[in-house]
Design goal:
Pfam families: GtrA_DPMS_TM. The chain crosses the membrane at residues 12-31, 37-60, 72-98, 110-127. It is a multi-pass membrane protein. Keywords: Membrane, Transmembrane, Transmembrane helix. The protein is 83% helix and 0% strand. By secondary structure, it is mainly α. It is globular and about 50 Å long. The two termini are 17 Å apart. The model has no long low-confidence stretch (mean pLDDT 93).
């Protein structure tokens, strides 16, 4: 299992995912010029997800022979699982584990960072096996 993460492909996945996250963050600021925060967050998430899909298809999983339609469907499903993982880990850490450990500073930041990091690994495997097989 470790061999999946000790590869050039995983490094490129991290880089393209980081760029897509920056597009998500930056586009929220732009969208917020014309819409309220809630709508801007949703539009930015969709913009980041499209960016991540295109970059993954072009640079990470370029050997994939699946149709774009099939890849896009699986890409959305894998990202749906990642959102649930992020939420569960963030909530579990923020409301249970970190308080139990006596952590009182930066609890939301620590919890959310861990919640965001964990799905990087499961998403990579999901995209490799399903989205861009």
């Amino acid at each position: 299992m470790i061999r999946h993460f000790a590869s050039r492909q995983f490094l490129v996945f991290l880089l393209t995912g980081g760029f897509a996250a920056a597009v998500n963050f930056g586009s929220r600021i732009v969208y917020n010029q014309w819409t309220d925060f809630s709508v801007a967050v949703v539009l930015a998430y969709l913009t980041g997800m499209v960016t991540a899909f295109v970059l993954a298809k072009l640079f990470v999983f370029k050997e994939s022979t699946q149709s774009v339609h099939h890849s896009a469907l699986w890409f959305c499903l894998v990202n749906g699982v990642a959102v649930v993982q992020t939420w569960l880990i963030s909530m579990g850490l923020a409301y249970y584990l970190l308080p139990w450990l006596g952590v009182t500073r930066f609890v939301p930041e620590i919890a959310h960072a861990a919640g965001v990091i964990f799905p990087v690994f499961t998403s990579y495997i999901g995209h490799k096996r399903f989205s861009f097989r």
